[in-house]
Fold:
Amino acid sequence: MVQAAFYEGKEQIRIGECIPVQPAAGEVQIKVSHCGICGTDLHLFHGKMDHRVHLPQVFGHEMSGTITALGEGVKGFALGDRVTVRPLDPCGTCAACLAGHSHICYHLKFIGIDAPGALQGLWTVPAHTLHRLPDSLSFKLGALIEPLAVASHDVRLAEVARGEHIVVQGGGPIGVLIGLVARSAGAKVLLSEVNPFRLQLAGELGFETVNPRQTDLAGYVNAWTNSAGADVVFEVSGSAAGAEMMTKLPRTRGRIVIVAIFGEVPRVNLFQFFWRELRLLGARVYEPQDFESAISLASSGTLPLERLISKVTPLDGLEAALRQLESGGEVMKILVQCSQD
Ligand SMILES: NC(=O)c1ccc[n+]([C@@H]2O[C@H](COP(=O)([O-])OP(=O)(O)OC[C@H]3O[C@@H](n4cnc5c(N)ncnc54)[C@H](O)[C@@H]3O)[C@@H](O)[C@H]2O)c1
Ligand SMILES: [Zn+2]
Ligand SMILES: [Zn+2]
Structure:
């Protein structure tokens, strides 16, 4: 039996029979292999996205799989192709879409929240969302392409250059992936994190690490950069402390990139923007080229991506996995196996 995970209301998950949807014109059906769980899924589980979902809602959006059916008119893909999905469905007609910014469309549908997601054996999506996975890339690593594409987008928008000093605040999956992508672009990376397990993992991955609750991060960065300040600060912690800290770290004309989604409006010291002529950038999701960069980077085998996978669980272990993630303990990325390869 093909299974699916249904969100049925705040903190209620039911594993039941998947109802396969035949692909309409321009759509494909995919046998989902693995699906990663992230903070957004946890948010949804906690009932914070009830205004967007339709119950019972299948969620999940960080996946890998194989095409099992093609709708009419789908070109460039065939049955059996190994793929991942860029889970964005823009309107195509708003000012953002017309300006070429369809990834931040004013009416953007995020597939996995605003439309059924990937935590099911068979998933039907628009073909324009597909990216091909090379045979050399495992389905497990294929499920990391979506968060790696977030990181690729962030590093690209920040224009990280070889030799630059980069500070990443927040060593969760996204922060660590930003660190890995920035390092592969030749930057020196310092990771600031408060969770001891994640700090240790970041250290093992070869990053300079600081716990800002134990060490004066601003003083550390000053010494690390020979009193110049960091070239780029990525704020990926989403914490009030991170928002207060971020303006203390950059050099003159340094960049701050906001990647985190802040649950509450944070206090930010604007003085440093004037004093050091800082630049503030926002970075949201990804564009197609970021998926392609992420796929080639992952396929190159140069990033220690396997180290980020804490656990692989079957679908009926999903709720326990969400509980483990919310505990904030010794965990980085958990993957759910949605079908046998
Ligand atoms: N821009 C986008 O499109 C996009 C995409 C995906 C995720 N996000 C957001 O990016 C953020 C990171 O995602 P994640 O999945 O890695 O989340 P996460 O919650 O796993 O990671 C955040 C990390 O920050 C650490 N932290 C908390 N306070 C800190 C502090 N003061 N200093 C340093 N570190 C601190 C936490 O211990 C945690 O490990 C979240 O806010 C998420 O919503 C944004
Ligand atoms: Zn995600
Ligand atoms: Zn649009």
